[in-house]
Amino acid sequence: MEKILVVDDVFESLLIGLEKHLGAEIHYYPDINPEKIPQKLSEDNYTGLVIRSKIRISRALLSHAPILQWIARAGSGIDNIDAEIVDDPNITVINADGANANSVAEHVLGMILAFQHRLILADQHVRMGEWDREAHRGTEIRGKTVGIVGVGHTGSALAKVLSGFGAHVIGYDKYKVGFTTDHVEQVDFEELCVQSDIISFHVPLSDETHSLIGADFFGRISRKPLVINASRGKVMDLNAAITALEKGQISGLCLAVLPDEPPLKNDSHHNTKSYRRLFEFEDVMFSPHVAGWSKESYRKISDRLLENILKYKGM
To answer: What is the pLDDT of residue 228?
Structure first.
């Protein structure tokens, strides 16, 4: 009987499906302390491991699971799995590609609307007894050019919802061509930087994309765009973003992810001063890495992951 260790919270459909279709013995520890996972792996002969974001998968960790055959991540990205593991022919890495795309798209749309119409500040000021209508005059999405960097599942979903608002959506993707549709026009990166009033990043974290939202990017833009990062925190260079805000190169930032999460968990961290500086700007909006974690996507991720595991098993 195949034994599968699950070390994070997943929707029950995944557990039920693995038992039903694989006849597997599931050991489910959603609240396990990450430090105890190596010991737990050593206690039994697991062939499958299901994770989310609690741990990083390294060669050292897998030394505790000598017969492990596959790792499944309940999410779209796999950046918490070391590249050498992803490339290992003896280990299959499985994810839930695209399962949370609509959730992220709606979250980003919500951030854009809140920023463009100054909703958070408006709410705060009314609660303080103020009634300054002119200070909270909004700006419509219709007629704006929105650039999407990374036109995969999530970028495509965002393009679709934005086109419904009458925006002109343009997209750049280093690894895709010919993706122009009714919702998005393919352009090169330079054109996207120059033409966009709003720019949203939806790329995986890799050596190529680390600090992609950095000094070089901010030097290319020309319309003082609103910049959104809903991919991974380390895609953005914090200090370069702060400099861009101070120089007025951008109109604001919407950050659904951060390089360190939570950002102020350790006051001695080298990025602490940067976070405190970012918190001083009124034109910066944050959310706690929940863009892809809607109530609906919680189930969709488990359902898609089960589907992909079964495909790997030839079922």
So the answer is: 98
**At which residue do the structure tokens 């600090």 appear?**
211
pLDDT of residue 266: 72
Number of domains in the chain: 2
Q: Taking a C-beta distance cutoff of 8 angstroms, is the pair 202, 155 a contact? A: yes
Kindly report the number of other CB atoms within 10 A of residue 33's CB atom.
Answer: 11
Count of other CB atoms within 10 angstroms of residue 90: 8
* Domain coverage including residue 303: 3-99+296-312
In angstroms, how far is the first alpha carbon of the chain from the final one?
17
Q: Evaluate whether residue 291 is within a structural domain.
A: no
**Cβ of 194: how many Cβ atoms within 10 Å?**
14
Find out whether 197 and 170 touch, Cβ atoms under 8 Å. Answer: no
194 & 227 share domain: yes
* pLDDT averaged over 10-residue windows placed end to end, the chain, 315 residues: 95 97 97 96 96 94 96 94 94 97 98 97 96 96 98 97 97 95 97 98 94 98 97 97 98 97 78 94 96 96 98 95
Provide the residue type at 255 as one letter.
L
